[in-house]
Amino acid sequence: MKRKNFFYGGVMALMMACSMSACSESDNPKPDAGGKDDPTNLDYKAENAVAWGNYMYNVGLLLNQDALVLYKYWTEDYDGKGPYATIFKDQTGGAYSSALACVQEMVEGGMWNIANEVGDAKIKDPWEKYTSGDKDGGLYAVESWYSWHSRDDYTNNIFSIRNTYYGRIDDNDVNKVDGNLNAFASYADFDDAGDIAEKSLSTLVASVNPELDKKIKTLIFESAKAIQAIPQPFRNNIDSKESVAAMDKCVELAGALKNELLPFVTNELSNSKYDAQLDAVAEQFVDAVVLPTYKDLKEKNTALLESVNKFRTHPSDEAFEAACSAWIKAREPWEKSEAFLIGPVANKGLDPNMDSWPLDQAGIVQVLESQNWNDMQWSGNFSEEDKAIGAAQSVRGYHTLEYLLFKDGQPRKTVSTK
């Protein structure tokens, strides 16, 4: 989720959307409620079919390129300083002074950051707008509302915290018991005994303060469980008691990470006797979590590009469905990487390149009509304050492709072109 230009891009999109249409105020609001020419209600049709396929392909191409570049930064070279994996694990290149600094980054720059964002922004921002009377603003503030995939996105964000803390990946998290986390009474029921790596941060914390370790693991599980308990889709249940419970639980998790785990790491683990263990935690995190996640991201974005290219060359309802499925699969490793939006992904602008939200819907329509792919490109050093960069990022990435693929939570149809 793009942090830079959040309000700048959001105001543009929201003004366009809400000036042309009013979102439903019923108990089951529908996203695409605008008029014929409203960007929020744009349809794939004969007149724009070729342009639509071209846009999908070019967005997929950029996503694939960004995923490849990100993996190369971590595994091959980052600005002539060697692989970022080595920079992090061995504290070379001047980025980190010690293994303790690396673990502090894992907690505050990663785990706390995304827990706070899910609770205090991704859920709370739509809730505050909606319950204050700005129902249009609340509806359009929901990330991933085109696909109705918000709930799983947020859950995978929490699992990214879990993977960072446990020092390993469980690829079946959301799929366990068909995603019904309510079937599990506690984190111990949900997690197999082997899920926590020997050289993980969890294991190290447990060896010194088992109660704190149990609290963090419990809050991670309860946050994911609370999010999954929100009636689907989140966009239609913004003000539900389940949404409030999920928001509160994620904020509680963020508080524990910032106010308990971080001070514990900083104060209790700063003793030199923990240096070797901290080194092992940093290495385990990179080798067993970061690199496999980014490798998965690279591979699934390659598959996504292939899928949208097949649609471009042979459009059909089945091709739309296949591309939507590929989008969901490529989205998962991205959302599971958000507990470590550190280093290249942040410094090089790859996060907002791939995951800008909200979108400039009017800008997307302009690109669709002009077919000027340069509007999605930017050059030079990345700056969060550069509005030209922000404008380019707001018409590319996962959510632009989501806009082109989904409508009302379902794959779009080509029937209107016949």
From TrEMBL:
Q: Is the Protein transport keyword given for this protein?
A: no
Q: Where in the cell is it found?
A: Cell envelope
Q: Name one Pfam family in it.
A: Peptidase_M75
Query: Which residues are in the Imelysin-like domain?
Result: 40-249, 291-409
Which keywords are on file for this protein? Signal
The superkingdom of the source organism is Bacteria
> Which stretch is the leader sequence?
1-24
Would you tell me the protein name for this molecule? Imelysin family protein
Taxonomic lineage of this organism?
Bacteria, Pseudomonadati, Bacteroidota, Bacteroidia, Bacteroidales
